[in-house]
Amino acid sequence: MILGMDEIINAICLHTAERTGVRPTDVTVELSWDEDTGYTGEVWVNGRSRYIVESNIMEAIMVYVHREYGMRVFREDIRLVLEEEIMAEIQSP
């Protein structure tokens, strides 16, 4: 299974909204990749921003895949890749 950038952003929005008690539409996400820091992102909620790292992104993907697809996946089952955009390759158990 492959999740595109839009689905990864949706996963982060849903996960952040649940953790902060806001609507998913109140969350904005920008993902990036850098040689030094790897996969990171910036999340805005109610005008405040915070940075997320790869482990935060993976956690959001794990929760999203379980809720949306009924699949229980673990961190080692997910690989983030950068092509035209950031994607998540998920190995089915």
Features:
93 residues; alpha+beta; three-stranded antiparallel sheet; 2 helices; globular
Structural class by helix and strand composition: alpha+beta
| Strand arrangement across the biggest beta sheet | 1-6-5
The topology string of helices and strands comes to: EHEEEHEE
Rounded average pLDDT: 95
Instruction: Report the strand count.
Output: 6
Unreliable residue stretches: none
Organism: Paenibacillus rhizolycopersici
Pfam families: DUF2653 (PF10850)
Protein name: YxcD family protein
InterPro entries: Uncharacterised_YxcD (IPR020516)
Task: Describe what you observe in this structure.
It comes from Paenibacillus rhizolycopersici. With 93 residues, the chain is of the alpha+beta class. The chain contains 2 helices and 6 strands; from the N terminus they run E-H-E-E-E-H-E-E. The strands form 2 sheets. Strands 1-6-5 form a 3-stranded antiparallel sheet. A 3-stranded antiparallel sheet has the order 2-3-4. Strand 2 and strand 3 (38-45) form a beta hairpin. The longest helix has 16 residues, at 5-20. The model has no long low-confidence stretch (mean pLDDT 95).
Short summary of the structure?
The protein has 93 residues and is α+β, with helices and mostly antiparallel strands.
Question: How are the SSEs placed, and which strands pair?
Answer:
Layout: E1 2-3, H1 5-20, E2 27-34, E3 38-45, E4 48-53, H2 54-69, E5 78-82, E6 86-90
Antiparallel strand pairs: 1-6, 2-3, 3-4, 5-6
Helix pairs in contact: 1-2
